[in-house]
Amino acid sequence: MKPRERYLACTAGENVSLLEAALWVAAEHDANAVPQRSLAQARDVEVSLRIRLPNASPVDSAQALLREMAALSFARDDDPSPKPRSALLHHVLERKKGQPLSLAMLALEYAKRLDIPLIGINFPGHFLLRATGADYFLDPCGGRRLYLPDCHALLRQQMGANATLNAQHLQPATPRQMLLRLSRNLRHLYWLADDPAAALIDANRVLELGEPHADDHLARAELYQRLGCPQAERYDLERALLLSEDESQRLILTARLGSFTQLNEALH
């Protein structure tokens, strides 16, 4: 089976194989990525964590897990020029450096194997974790506890000084939501890397497997524009216009679509 088919097999049914699915996402980009080899690496890390983790309550075990991962050198990739490798899980396992979401995916996999109650939190700009029953959140990059004032400060750091924290920012993330966020991250990282063909792989996955969203169609339209595919670009602009609820965005999209009409008239 092709990597996309393997990905679909991992996400079928209720019990999504989060780490394996993310590794098949990586295999779509890198022919040298071997998910089974990466899973074996993950098992080796699991063995180390089992030995190192102290006896603690289930809630405290979640923070201890993240701290022990940090002790094993898992950390945020602080490269000033973000690269796709920080989101490709086989590279994250090899380098022990990654985005908050990538580190969180690994932590959730280990928590599942070690019976530690841990869930993902779809916080904007910086994915978070939370132990079931805890009154605080956890930074996947080292395990720092974040209480509500800390979350508010982090939100302003990510979204601007006028951002206001609300319940929507602290919602649990399902495995499928995490995989879609991973795909969007990769789409952006390949865009920054000036590799629109690679970014298109992730843009297609987002639109094929997620709910239709204007911004996702618009992102793919930009990729098609850079790839010189005007018909595909026009299709996504039309879909974005149908889905958009932002009046200013609708005006911009209408104007862009008008330029296609003018071009066709000029050609004929």
Automatic annotation (TrEMBL):
Residues 44-183 form the Protein SirB1 N-terminal domain. InterPro entries: SirB1_N. It comes from the Bacteria. Belongs to the UPF0162 family. This is Protein SirB1 N-terminal domain-containing protein. It comes from Pseudomonas matsuisoli. The lineage of its organism: Bacteria, Pseudomonadati, Pseudomonadota, Gammaproteobacteria, Pseudomonadales.
